[in-house]
User: Fold this.
Amino acid sequence: MKNIIFGLLIFPFYVHAVDNNPSEFSTPEQEQRYQELIKELRCVVCQNQSVADSNAELAQDVRNLVRDQIHDGQTDQQISSFMVERYGDFVLYDPPFNSKTYLLWGLPLLLTLIAIISFIYFTRKHVQTTSVSTDLTKDEQAKIKQALGE
Assistant:
């Protein structure tokens, strides 16, 4: 019994959302578009899951909206624009670069630059404060020669 419980804890489970309102598309292309769109949209409740993987009620609503808009003949761009208008840029896994998202795109670069500059600064400071003078005085040279028996 312990082995079964241990085995269940070790092996990951992949849980996929169950679509409560499945409907058939008239063409395989529509089904393909639907699958791609719901993978590109982020669940705003779960935050790090796509709408395709989320079991939240809001994710089901978004899946229904996408399905209805595909049936209505909307393009992928129109559907994405509608979702951004309704939920904001956060709903996209790949948000556009604009005035609202410049921190999202620029902050990782800025933090990396700060880390590199800090590393260089502290490395140089460490080298300067721990360096030992290699110049020996005449007395020190004489003591070394005497110790070596020269």
About this structure: Residues 102-148 form one domain. The mean pLDDT is 82.
